[in-house]
Structure formats: C-alpha cells, structure tokens
Design goal:
This protein is of the alpha/beta class and about 525 residues long. The chain has three domains: about 5-80, no CATH class; about 90-250, 2-Layer Sandwich (Alpha-Beta Plaits), CATH 3.30.70; about 255-505, EAL domain (TIM Barrel, Alpha-Beta Barrel), CATH 3.20.20. It has helices spanning about 5-25, 30-40, 45-80, 95-110, 125-130, 130-150, 175-190, 215-235, 250-255, 255-265, 305-310, 315-335, 350-355, 360-370, 390-400, 415-425, 435, 445-460, 470-480, 495-510, 515-520; strands at about 115-120, 155-160, 165-170, 190-195, 195-200, 200-210, 240, 270-275, 285-295, 300, 345, 375-380, 405-410, 430, 460-465, 485. The strands form three sheets. An eight-stranded mixed β-barrel has the order 8-9-11-12-13-14-15-16, surrounded by five helices. Helix 1 (about 5-25) runs antiparallel to helix 3, helix 2 packs across helix 3 and helix 12 (about 315-335) packs parallel to helix 14. The chain is globular, with a radius of gyration of 33 Å. The two termini are about 40 Å apart. About 35% of the residues are buried.
Length: about 525
C-alpha cells in the first residue's frame, strides 16, 4: 500500500509552522533578554541564540525521520501482507490491485484477458492420509509448477487453501486460454515426491474471458468459479470456459425450457474435429462435437450447457439428434467419396446408455440414414458406465453386433480401466490429453503413454492420442507407435462444409497430408 501523500504534506506543513513560530518568537526583546542572561551567566550569547533556534528545528527533523521510518515499515508490512507465507505467491489481498492493472492493459491494448480459477482435486485426501505437513509440501510444489507453466507476464495468486487464481493478459483467442489451462492440468497431475513415496493430484480449471467491458472483479471471479465447478462435475482434470457476462444471464442460459426450445428451434449444430493418422498425417476420421448456436450469445461450447442437458434428462433427446445428424453426414461424405472409409466418432453419455430405448433408437437411425454401421464409432467414458455397468454392457454389445465400433475415451483418468477394456471389447483406446500434454516435461507421462500403447496393441486395439498441440508431442507419439491423433496442432473442430473440403483434399493427397495446410492454425 502506498503512503498517504496528504499525511506527508501535513507533516511538512507542521514542520514549517514550527520554524515560523520559532522565528516569530525570537523577537528583538526576547533576543535581548537571552543575550543579557547569557552574559551574566558567562555563556556566549550568540551560541545561546543559535541553540534556541536549533532545538525546534532539530525536533522537526527528528519527527520527519520518524515518519519516514514508520512509512518504510508500513510499506514493508503491507508488502508482506500481500504475499502468501507458504508459497511466496501473491495472496488474495493482492488480487484487486493486480486485477485493476490487468483491466487497464485490456482497455489500452484492446486484447482480452483470461482469469483462470484452479482448484486441486483430491487434495483433502492428501491431508487426511499423509498429514498437513505433507499437504503444505504439495501446495508449495504445485505453486512452483504453476509459476513455471504460465507465461512470463501472467500472474499466479494463491486464492486460499488449494485454490489459485491466474491472470493472463493478451489472450489472442479463447483457444489460447484453453491451452494454458490444459497445460496447468498437465503439470499438476505429474506425481509429487513426498517423504514416504509419491502423491498424485489433478486440477479442475474454470476460465473466464474478459474484454474489459462492464466486468467487475467479483463478477469475473464468480464466473470463473462457476466454470470450475462445472469442470469438476465432468470429472477430474477438466477445463471449462464461461464468459463473465453469462453471470448476468444465468437464469436464462440453460434451464430445461430454454434447452428444449433450442432443440425445437434447431439451434444445436455439430462441428467435427479431424482424427489424423500419425504415420502419414492423412485424415482417417472425425469426432462429432455439439455446439449451441444461441440467438443472442452466439456459438456456445458444450461446457456451458451439457451439464444442464444431463441433469434435465434432455441429453437423451439431444443425443439422439446428434447421432442422427452425424450418421446422415457420414452417409453424405461416403456417398461423395466412396473410396474413403474414414470413421465418424460420436460421444454417448451415461444417460443414453441407461435409456432402455437407446438400442431401438440406434437401429431406427441406421435404417433411416442408410449409413454403414462400420463407419460409426461410439465414444464412451469410464464415468458414463459406472452407474449401470450391466445395462451399459447390454446396450454397447447390441451396438457392436450391428458393426459399430467402440472407443474408450479419457483412458487412465477414471476407474478400473483394464477391466473395462476386457469386458467391453473396445476397438479404440483414446489416450487422455493430460498425459499427452506432459510429453517433453517429464518422464512419467511418456512412460505411461508408451506402456498404454503397447497394452492396446497387444489387445488388438487402435490408439488415438488426444490434445496434440506441439510438434514434439507428435514426434514422440510416432516413436511410441501411436496410431492416430487429434488436437489443435492438426486442426480444431469445424463445420461440415470445411470438413467436406478436407475430405476432398484428403483424397487427392494420400501421403503427407497436413490438415492445417487448409484450415490454418487455430
């Protein structure tokens, strides 16, 4: 905290007043009496007068020095109060000042900023199992990793307990913020050495993009916090992005009636992200991803509304629509390019798997669209099948009997992965992006990925690495023998017409096809 300039001016004015009063007091009559008394006492009369002047001046100087020392002490205490004693990071009290500086930069540069709210998953278990001293060690190490993971101009703040806030200026696109959040999740998930072994954590990250327009700190933090809790609801190690202005529209963003209206008004759309062969970088498939073309808020990513679809039960109807649209689009692509047999992957939720009518829905869609079942692949997560394993197996077995492939998504982040590989006889194993992000930053993730690829190949499965964002990740995955990959280094998700152009280009260039040659970097 800065010193109050008015207090300094008041002190200087008081000092000047002392000197003026002293000078006024030294009237001719007073001086004469002092000099006379000094002569009678045997003192130098000039020295006596000088002493009379010096004493109040010295007192004023002494007072100023005490003020200066006290001000310096207050500054030092204020600086200490703004730091977290455990990690050395700025603490919660420093956030308003740093946020104000960041907003000023946003307004000056017209470049958005991102606020990331990071919460450690399973940290309570560390304290309960290993004690609070170990918990302090873990928090200190996480703080160090966060500082190393962010960009030089970003600001990491310990918000409290196992929560951190990160201010990131000059965010070119939301993708930049998402990449940073995913990198943070990756560094947190690397095992941490403790006295009696290692502990492993994950992190949930909520992201709020700020453009400086009518956005207060409390509003932005509330939005980022809400996004973080949505990330937690999707599982561990997830990142969700919300806009701060969404907080003002929370009541109308995604309730059941609004989502039902969106489905009836055909506001949902599908984008498709290419899946690429790592051997020759040709497109071998796409993953269908849901988007909401909101009439007021524009194109919304699923993190804003999928949770509401799940809780309201509308995910069953929307999921059926997704399946039908993706199947119809797959039939269109394959009719136009019969020489290409790339797959179309479709995410299937736990609610859909537990719906007794789902197998019949699948059969009707296959019949109405005429798509070959062999070009479709259902992607499931371990969490999606936990509530009703037997029912999920019956549903998925029916799909496999029709010729639809199965992919286990987010492998390694859920429950008993190996048992599911054996029971559900999955065709594709998707390596979670948190492991891919750790490539090049430590040996643990590389060792895990290499062994997972070997296991999958031993079981006759195709491996797909998610979240490839750097060339060194691609090169290392190729060395490990990974079959396929997807991520922003190749391409982000695009509308069907862009994918149609990629399909045409893919047919002309069977070797050395680079998706980014056409769509550009995100």
């Amino acid at each position: 905290m800065r010193d109050d300039p008015r207090a300094a001016r008041d002190l200087l004015a008081a000092m000047a007043g002392v000197i003026v009063v002293t000078a006024a007091a030294l009237s001719t009559d007073l001086v004469d009496r002092v000099m006379s008394t000094s002569v009678l006492a045997g003192f130098d009369p000039k020295g006596a007068v000088a002493l009379l002047v010096a004493i109040p001046v010295a007192a004023s100087v002494f007072s100023y020095r005490r003020y200066r020392d006290a001000a310096a002490a207050r500054r030092e205490l204020a600086a200490i109060s703004m730091l977290d004693s455990l990690t050395g990071l700025p603490n919660r009290r420093s956030l308003p000042e740093w946020y104000a500086q960041a907003i000023r930069r946003v307004m000056h540069t017209a470049s958005p900023m991102a606020v990331l709210f990071v919460d450690l998953d399973r940290f309570k278990a560390v304290n309960d199992t290993h004690g609070h001293d170990c918990g302090d060690l873990v928090i200190t190490e996480v703080a160090r990793r966060l500082r190393s993971a962010v960009r030089p101009g970003d600001r990491v703040i310990r918000y409290g307990g196992d929560e951190f806030v990160i201010l990131c200026n000059d965010i070119v696109t939301p993708t930049t913020a998402m990449r940073l959040a995913q990198r943070i999740v990756g560094v947190v998930e690397m095992p941490i050495d403790i006295a009696n072994g290692k502990v492993s954590l994950s992190a949930s990250v909520g992201i709020s993009i700020v453009d400086g327009e009518h956005t207060t700190m409390d509003q932005v933090l509330s939005t980022a916090d809400s996004a973080m809790y949505r990330a937690k609801s999707e599982g561990t190690g997830r990142c969700v992005m919300l806009e701060p202005r969404a907080a003002n529209h929370a009541a109308t963003l995604a309730p059941a009636d609004e989502l039902r209206r969106a489905l009836e008004a055909k506001e949902f759309v599908l984008h498709y992200q290419p899946v690429v062969s790592l051997a020759n970088r040709s497109m071998v498939g796409v993953e269908a991803l849901l988007r909401w073309q909101h009439p007021e808020r524009g194109l919304l990513l699923p993190g804003l509304f999928v949770e509401d679809l799940e809780t309201s039960g509308l995910i069953v109807d929307v999921g059926a629509w997704v399946l039908e649209q993706a199947a119809r689009q797959a039939r269109e692509w394959h009719d136009a390019h019969p020489d290409q047999r790339f797959k179309v992957a479709i995410n299937v939720s736990g609610r859909q798997l537990s719906d007794p009518d789902f197998p019949q829905t699948v059969n009707e869609i296959l019949r109405s669209t005429g798509v070959r079942p062999s070009v479709l692949c259902f992607e499931i997560t371990e969490g999606a099948i936990m509530d009703d394993i037997d029912g999920a197996w019956a549903t998925l077995r029916s799909a496999k009997e029709r010729g639809i492939q199965l992919a286990l998504d987010d492998f390694g982040t859920g429950y008993s992965s190996l048992s599911y590989l054996r029971r559900f006889k999955t065709d594709v194993l998707k390596i979670d992006r948190t492991f891919v992000d750790g490539l090049g930053r430590g040996s643990e993730d590389a060792a895990i990925i290499e062994h997972v690829i070997g296991l999958a190949h031993a079981l006759g499965m195709i491996t797909v690495a998610e979240g490839i964002e750097r060339e060194d990740q691609y090169a290392q995955l190729v060395r490990f023998g990974c079959d396929q990959g997807q991520g922003f280094w190749f391409s982000q998700a695009h509308p069907p017409d862009v994918i149609s152009s990629l399909v045409r280009l893919n047919g002309r260039r069977s070797r050395d096809f680079v998706v980014a040659d056409l769509v550009g970097s995100p």
